[in-house]
Amino acid sequence: MAIVAPFRGLTYNFNRFGDLSSLVAPPYDVISPEEQKYFYQAHPNNVIRLILGKKKTGDSDWDNRYTRSADFMKRWESEDILVRSKHPAIYLTSHTYDPGDGGGKRVRWGFIALVRIEDEGSRVILPHEMTFSAHRDDRLKLMRACSAQLSQVFGLYDDSAGILNRLKAVSGSPPRVSFELKDGTGHMMWIIEDKSVFKMVAEGMRDKALLIADGHHRYETSRNFRNIMRARHGRGRGNRSYEYLMMYLSDMNDKGLTILPSHRLIKRCNGFRPSTFLKKASQWFEVAELPVSGPKGRDRCNDLKGAMAEKGENSSVLGFYYHGGDRYYLLSLRTGAMDETGEKLHPSLRKLDVLVLSGLILQKSLGFTKEDQDDDRNFHYNSDMADAISLVKSGEYKMAFFLNPTKMEHIKEVASNSLIMPRKSTYFYPKVLTGLVFNKIDPHETIQST
After folding, report:
1. pTM reported for the whole predicted model
2. What mean pLDDT do residues 347-373 have?
3. Cβ–Cβ under 8 Å, residues 249 and 156
């Protein structure tokens, strides 16, 4: 069962900062070097200095990006830039955004609380994507330096009991935090300190399984940190602060939840010849063509997206475009083709477009190994089809493969069968902001769960 508890959050001093728009940032792993520079310049107290500090020539074991993050955090606390709540709280948030599908703005609701960390295989907190040791090591160094969880893990649960609606009903008005970012998204946060509400949330979540939508590395890092703390301070009764992690929890059935695709762009592909590739791919796919340009030179990107969505209702379909080409290609999987991958895949995994792409296109048709596909220097991920096409047209990338968004029912099925997808199989949008609230970890502090 999921153990959920309130906590004494560390936040920016709302009395000093009425508008947090220049202080917050996306999760560290989606911030480009250019964006890192932007956030550094946005405000001297921007959260970027905590979550993704700059590397410097001459960094050492005692002076590096992690120790500097810890120094910033301590100094900001001493100067009352960051203040810790005197009382445990649950943090209710709303995120208003436009997904760009023509349907207008949506609002995704969620709440931030502590969740007790589970051992692997417990069936309470369910991962669905692969992680990599380098990313876990990076986040562990930061957590050990700062003794804090700086970014939430994004979790989903079935809110058929209406927990979020009850939180909204007691949240009061106006919100404690309200601001808009330059991308037009709106953000609000309410701080709830009512003990009766804590009990309602704890009881409502007790029979829930939580699906990790985003933050797999942060979750595994928190579990590794917990194990280190257990070795040093003991397990106790399981209520020490390091037994918990900070999570943002949202309803997996909420209409405000959006899943975007993760299109693949490739910089280099030795020996690539379009005609040879398409002939080889036709063994496993029905190949259809679509001119890149329509009447008056209109790009037919949206036509490709619509065709993929229509055909993808019943089977796996991929889009393809290469530099210098005047056609988009629609690759529809032939019946039984996945048997040709040579892998014994669970039925839940055989449905995933990302594994169809990996097994039949990238490996069998283009000759990439699984290890090659983990090379971020050659493979790039982009959720915007038009942007990805532009990057290929410019010659920055040699080719792109387009995917439909992974369906929520497939994600739940994979996780419930204790299976793992390749990384970048899903892109839950929008990302949860970093900087709304942090969780300090004092090994001598206990968490009061109801």
Report:
1. 0.90
2. 89
3. yes
